[in-house]
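ok posting inputs for the S-adenosylmethionine job
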Amino acid sequence: MSQLTFDEAAVRSLEATYMSPDVVAQRGRVLDLLVPAVGERILDVGVGPGLLARDVARLVGETGRMVGLDNAPAMVAAAAQRLSDLPQAQVLQGDAGRLDFPDAAFDAAVSTQVYEYVPDMPQALGELHRVLRPGGRALILDTDWRSIVWHSSDPARMDRVLACWDAHLADPHLPARLGPLLRQAGFEVRRVEIVPMLSPRWQPASYAGGMMRSIHNFVRANGGRFGLSSDEIEAWRLDQDALIARDEFFFSLNRYAFLATR
Ligand SMILES: C[S@@+](CC[C@H](N)C(=O)[O-])C[C@H]1O[C@@H](n2cnc3c(N)ncnc32)[C@H](O)[C@@H]1O
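and the output
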């Protein structure tokens, strides 16, 4: 398995993609579903560069507590800097599979685009359940890469590129299993929604634009193991450039938001 490295370059790349209108809208929807209230204690598992955590910290206010957790030192540093002016916020290094908090320490937890990287989901959801108080909320959002519709002049080549990209995750189809996994961990699933990343035309400052760059980099580094030659990878990229030039670009991918309670 060859997963992504969440280093300083990844921080910059994620920040650029996550400030695009698609992902700003996603954060808005996550906040609508989570409804952080003044005074609440909220955990963000896999806080990344801290964009969502900053919104949550402002909503819980100085009487609340916002704890961001991440296992990548570069992400911890970026989130800590982003949250440094908010005394109710704290960023810690740690793993989603072993939460170093007492039982029932939080009123709610949020985790966007993280559990798809986690190999042992029963363990991680068991930990999430333990650190929430009875009645506490969990809002989990992940992508199912089977939902992708990405126009190409060579669909078979696109499938090979995306099969390689699937290897950056522990489970590229986690949402399809997430409901049963949550129930097995003791949660009650209250609501499930699709959060689409839709680019019906090319727009460089978009989730699709960010993915084009990330997938190109990942496939160049890992494609050999999937039988993808560098010529084929460049042909895939040039095809996208040609579609963009003819205004024929199309990209659609679904993320799934699960709201559950303990
Ligand atoms: C795609 S980023 C999402 C960041 C953030 N949640 C967001 O939506 O903006 C995935 C994050 O999960 C973190 N991560 C991956 N596996 C993790 C684990 N086992 N424990 C804690 N953090 C993890 C990575 O370091 C990275 O910051």
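notes: The pocket of S-adenosylmethionine is lined by residues 6, 14, 18, 46-48, 51-52, 70-72, 75, 95-97, 112-114, 117-118 (CB under 6 Å). The chain is about 40% helix and 25% strand.
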